[in-house]
Amino acid sequence: MDNAKTNTGTLNPFFHPAAHYASPEDVLNDDELCAPEKRIILSSWASDMFAVESCPALREIPGMGHTIRLADILAALRRLDGNDDDPPRPGGVPMRLRRPWAAALRRSARCSRWLS
Q: Which residues pair with 69 in a beta bridge?
């Protein structure tokens, strides 16, 4: 599929985006595509189908001569949605440390007030 780059003028950018765009930024900057079309292209690139087996944070798109970082694709999708904020940082309280029984205690306390 490397020869797709040689005849890019005859290929539709929507159906063969790798022949027309070198990065998620290129997709975002194309004024001829509407937002849903950009979302389709970027989402297809983010697909696990294109994940590099030894490095799942990278995507290898057929017809494109280089890999793309999944983080760059997801950042472009966030920009397309008008949300330039960084994704939430991982963390928080692990499930094993949460107290799932606390909510049940609160509910039972409320019920006991109604029954009294």
A: 58
65: three-class secondary structure by DSSP = coil
pTM of the model: 0.59
Q: Which residues contact 41 (CB under 8 A, 6 or more apart)?
A: 14, 17, 21, 27, 33
Q: Which amino acid is at 61?
A: I
CB-based contacts of 57, cutoff 8 Å, min separation 6: 69, 70, 71
Centre a 10 Å sphere on the Cβ of residue 27 and count the other Cβ atoms it contains.
24
Structure tokens at 17: 């985006």
Q: What is the enclosing helix (H) or strand (E) of 108?
A: helix 100-115
Task: Tell me the CA distances in angstroms from 41 to 11, 26, 93, 100, 108, one per residue in order.
Answer: 15, 11, 36, 41, 51
Q: What is the pLDDT of residues 27-83, one digit of tens each?
A: 999 998 999 999 999 999 998 888 999 999 999 988 888 999 999 999 999 999 887
Q: What is the CA radius of gyration of the chain?
A: 23
What are φ and ψ of residue 57, in 5° steps? -80, -5
